[in-house]
Structure formats: C-alpha cells, structure tokens
C-alpha cells in the first residue's frame, strides 16, 4: 500500500481519498476509479464509523464490494482522523490497509508518543500510518479546528521519530466549506517537502483551485482528501429529484440520480489529481 503512494509521489500525481457516508458512496467511488483506471483511497472518518456500522462491518463491506463489482484497480481502505490509539488498533484488527492517527491537538511530545504506539501496532500488521502536525481549519463530520500552520521541526520529528508512512502538515487548508479564498502556505510546504522524504497528505481539498492542487502535488503531496464536494453533489441532486416529482417514493428512482452525480464529481476529482490511467 505504501508503494502505491510512493509511486504517486515519484510520478507527480496524487491518489484521491474519498470519504464514505453509506453504501452509495462506496459504489460511486469504486465505479469512478475503475472507469478512469485510477488507484483510490476509500476513507471512513473515525467520527462516523459508528454510523457506518463499526470498523469491522464497514471495512468488510468495502472489501466485499470490491470483489462483487470486479474492481481491478488498487484500493486502499483508510481510517481518517483516528481519534485514539485504541480506535486505530480496532481499525487495524478489522482489516483496514491504512490508518491516520490525529494527534494534532496534543503537544508535539505527546503526538509523537501516541503516533509511535499506532505505528508499532500497525506496521506489525502491514498497515501504513498517516500522522498530522498543525491544525486544519473548519468543521466537517464533527472535526472542528482553527487553522494553525505546521511547524517544520515538529514535522521532521513526528515523521522520523514515529516512523510515519505519510504526513499531513496543516498549511492553511480547511475541512468543509471555505469562507473566502483558500490560502495555502506554499513556501512552508516546499521547506517541509525538502526536509522529509515521505509523501505528504492534503486535507480539506474541496474548494481549493485546480492550479493550487497541482502546485501541492508538485511539492510532495501524493494523497489528497475530498469529502465536502461529493456530499454537495449528492444532496443537490437529491433535492432536485424530489422537487421535480413530489409523488416519487421509489427509493431507487430517488437515489440513482444522486449516485450518478457522485460518480461524475469523483471522476472530476480524479482528473484534478491526475491519477487517471495510472493502472
Ligand atoms: Zn482531514
């Protein structure tokens, strides 16, 4: 799994992570990735895992879907913003391929200590680990924060001391909807990329311009997380379908157009990340 992200970094594209909010999301992500021959990361954020049926249920469901849909592109099942070391271990035990431990609200000492515990357990089970430094702003799925730029020394320490596979340095991106123009710290990004050789991860990419995404990719980002714009496409289409025919009650008739809207949005994300035709 690590080799996939390393390859993306070397060849200057990013593998999109798309977050799951139910069965239709899993199907849409896999369909879009297969059609465009893109490797893909299927994410579940820790705060919604219970809503999704628990670590084991959702991980097994994603893997079963990969089989029944005859998916041939590489898929990484990832835990996004793991809240505790215990939760990350549960995800590893449930069969996730990759976990993120979010210790960004802790002191750097404590962040390193907790992330290290996740890495030791995960690596023993051939699972890769993403860590975070600084604070990503905004509000999404109950993850709330004010933007705090990642400190270069903290990034180097967390990556090296915890033996991370990927690092998410917060550099001005925001979860959920942006208020005004996103302002990414490209000079800080360049310094981090030059100091650390592992692939970087960009959170809160919905709303960042295509040009800025490409700059981030060229500055070492090989995994980019998307959630908000897919959910906006889904909900806009759902509202439109229901408003067009007030007598509709057949679930498939109601849900199919919103699924198609998600597939199109995910394909557009894959084009932005230039991860198409890579497998
Ligand atoms: Zn995030």
UniProtKB/TrEMBL annotation:
Residues that bind Zn(2+) 1, according to the entry?
81, 175, 203
The molecular function GO annotations come to: aldehyde-lyase activity; zinc ion binding
UniProt-annotated binding residues for dihydroxyacetone phosphate: 176, 204-206, 225-228
Instruction: Name the needed cofactors.
Output: Zn(2+)
Query: What keywords would UniProt list here?
Result: Metal-binding, Zinc
The record places the active site at 80 (proton donor)
Q: Which InterPro entries match?
A: Aldolase_TIM (IPR013785), Class_II_FBP_aldolase (IPR050246), FBA_II (IPR000771)
Cofactor comment in the record? Binds 2 Zn(2+) ions per subunit. One is catalytic and the other provides a structural contribution.
Gene3D superfamilies assigned: Aldolase class I
Q: Which residues bind Zn(2+) 2?
A: 102, 132
KW Zinc (keyword) present: yes
| Pfam family of the protein (one) | F_bP_aldolase
From which domain of life does this come? Bacteria
The GO annotation for biological process reads:
carbohydrate metabolic process
Q: Which PANTHER family match?
A: D-TAGATOSE-1,6-BISPHOSPHATE ALDOLASE (PTHR30304), D-TAGATOSE-1,6-BISPHOSPHATE ALDOLASE SUBUNIT GATY-RELATED (PTHR30304:SF0)
Q: Mind telling me which NCBIfam families this protein's record contains?
A: cbbA (TIGR00167)
Q: What is this protein called?
A: Fructose-bisphosphate aldolase class II
Protein source organism: Staphylococcus xylosus
What taxonomic lineage is listed for the species of origin?
Bacteria, Bacillati, Bacillota, Bacilli, Bacillales
